[in-house]
Sequence to fold (228 residues):
Amino acid sequence: EADIYQTPRYLVIGTGKKITLECSQTMGHDKMYWYQQDPGMELHLIHYSYGVNSTEKGDLSSESTVSRIRTEHFPLTLESARPSHTSQYLCASSELKGSVGYEQYFGPGTRLTVT
Amino acid sequence: DQQVKQNSPSLSVQEGRISILNCDYTNSMFDYFLWYKKYPAEGPTFLISISSIKDKNEDGRFTVFLNKSAKHLSLHIVPSQPGDSAVYFCAASETGGYQKVTFGTGTKLQVIP
Fold:
């Protein structure tokens, strides 16, 4: 079973502040992802990484940035938080299951509220 | 353009009966399909998957059916239990590329005791 951790679980912060959402996994997975989800909506991929020093933007445009300096760590940073960034942020990592198909393991998420 | 669609936002089922959750997809390149279960304030957890070479996969009370010609899959839960009450996300991916998983909008299942 994969272990993937996110901190903080909940964050309320004022407009203009810089924030970093932490994500770590202990399974040695190369591939990691950040999703953004609003209530009743699908998960939108905002960033992904193939491995160390590899990061790409996902389908949904996001003002956040990510880094991948270590395999187990994939933090997401917002330089200047705005109310439109209020959402749930989910981190995931994945491994190949058999010969086809990647199963993603999710962290518990960070619920961000920007006031 | 939403490539994975769950047209029923919610479903209520009596305990002990069958729950059927449906999902349609439009991308014919998808070849691996997954169902995730999500409780409030938690991340999704993997439930069951199926590759495109199969049309059925069972795991205990959960069975996923895949109809490739109709680009449709369904999740059957038998018998339904109150602890199954959650939001269920259908997801699909292609082998190759960066293994992006595309999610549907979810169906909220309520199992009534």
